[in-house]
Amino acid sequence: MSLLSVRSLTRSLAQRRLLAIDELCLADGESCVLTGENGSGKSTLLRILAGIDAPDGGTGCFDGRPFAWRPYPDWLRKQVTYVHQQPYLFHSSVIDNIAYGLRARGVPGAERERRVAEALSWARLNHLLDTPPARLSGGEKQRLALARAWVLRPRLLLLDEPTASLDADSRRQTIELLRTFADAGTTAVIACHDRDVIELAAMRRLDLVDGRIITD
Amino acid sequence: MGLLDATRAALLLLVSGDPELWGIVGVSLSVTLRAMLVATPLGIAAGYLLATVVFPGRRLVIILTQGLLASPTVVVGLILYLLLSRQGVFGHLQLLFTQTAMIIGQVLIALPVLIAFSLSAIQGADPRARETALALGASAPRIAWTLLLEVRFALMAAVCSAFGRIVSEIGCALMVGGNIAGVTRNMPTAIALETSKGDFAQGIALGIVLLLVALGINTAFAFFQGEARR
């Protein structure tokens, strides 16, 4: 069953085509990797799917429900989570960062605490509770960003180069976490050049050139 | 009375808890703090809207706000005087020569500082902060609150800067307050009055308090600016 389908998705900037996708369908629980050169449209596609940027045109359907991008619907925003290539962490605590999305969804205190504790263990961040997020290493920041996404149990997870600029150990830990997303049946779209991540999402690979999907 | 004697008398006034002197300090701080209570949320909200909402004439509003940063306080006082005087549009409110008039004047002087600094702080925030809040499902008010928290040190610096500007301004306070003893006489107007009367002791004592307040504010400003850059 299709979780997400988009049609005729286009975006241009200063007369330069950034994205021109005729059709893209993602099955529920499917993981797919976006590959392509820098500027091929991978990040643009992820940001549009996440509702951060709006396309110039196109239609979408999520779980059988049609939607428009202007404005990006709130019900859809609650189902989708996006993680930047270099995740931004709020200048608060590790716990507050993980709890942010739960607070935004109005999850009650006790339930929120339980889910945050579970996410902390999942990302192996328990020993870093007193460390300001800005002082975490690159790998720890990435794990915190993934925990922040994991705690929300999104139907669709969008990741932009999750293993870029990480050392070997952090890369391995990040890939392990990504595997648990896949095992939990989360539909994921991952922009990536990392061969191990590509193998992880071996189900499907989309190559983008000049904003178009050339191989699927 | 020589300068040394006047300074000695000033210190004596300060440590002896002279009620008139400390009453003036009280009026000054009370008026300024109430003005800041009104101006701060308005200024930060306006700065946020200018930074995040695109509307026709936005650029003009920004230029105007930045231009008003350097507006002479005596001109603000003059305009307010004309509006609040008996023949003025708001003359029927009988606010001239009251603390309320002084507060209105100080709010008008503080607002451009707060708006311009808040605008700059929010525009300088990492764009990923807003995008992350959005991607995690935050509503528009929560995104606004998150952004303001992320730039809180820069906003505190804005508050310190605005407080420093209005606590020491004399032009507007003198014109719309009238320097009435025990009611609208604040530190800057009292210093001017006592000095003109040749009573240097009280002028110096108030000058010391004002200097300490300004020093404290500027220290806090420097601290918050440093934190904001970290």
Question: What do these coordinates show?
Answer:
Chain A is an alpha/beta fold and 216 residues long. Chain A has one domain (2-215): 3-Layer(aba) Sandwich (Rossmann fold). Chain A contains seven helices and ten strands. The longest helix of chain A has 16 residues, at 168-183. Chain A is globular. The model of chain A has no long low-confidence stretch (mean pLDDT 92). With 230 residues, chain B is an all-alpha fold. Chain B has a single domain (3-229), classed as MetI-like (MetI-like fold). In chain B, 78% of the residues lie in helices and 0% in strands. Chain B has helices spanning 3-15, 19-52, 58-68, 73-84, 99-123, 127-135, 140-150, 152-167, 171-177, 187-197, 200-229. The chains are: A alpha/beta (216), B mainly alpha (230). Chains A and B meet through strand 6 and helix 3 of A and helix 6 and helix 7 of B.
What's this model, at a glance?
With about 220 residues, chain A is an alpha/beta fold.
Key traits:
heterodimer, A: 216 residues, Rossmann fold, 4-stranded antiparallel β-sheet, 7 helices, globular, B: 230 residues, mainly alpha, MetI-like fold, 0% strand
How confident overall, as mean pLDDT of chain B? 94
Kindly report the spatial arrangement of strands forming the biggest sheet of chain A: 6-7-8-3-9-10
* Low-confidence residue ranges of chain B: none
Text of the CATH class of chain A: Alpha Beta
The major sheet of chain A is characterized as: 6 strands, mixed
Strand % of chain B is under 5%
Query: What name goes with the CATH superfamily of chain B?
Result: MetI-like
Q: What is the multimeric organization of the chains shown?
A: heterodimer
Described by strand count, sense and barrel closure, the largest sheet of chain B is: none
Share in β-strands of chain A: 25-35%
Q: How many structural domains of chain B?
A: 1
Q: Please count the helical segments of chain B.
A: 11
Strand runs of chain B, count: 0
- Shape type of chain B: globular
Shape of chain A: globular
**Separation, N- and C-terminal Cα atoms of chain A:** 18 Å
CATH H-tier superfamily of chain A: P-loop containing nucleotide triphosphate hydrolases
**Broad structural category of chain B:** mainly alpha
Which CATH top level class of chain B fits? Mainly Alpha
Q: How many domains in all of chain A?
A: 1
| Gyration radius of chain A, rounded | 17 Å
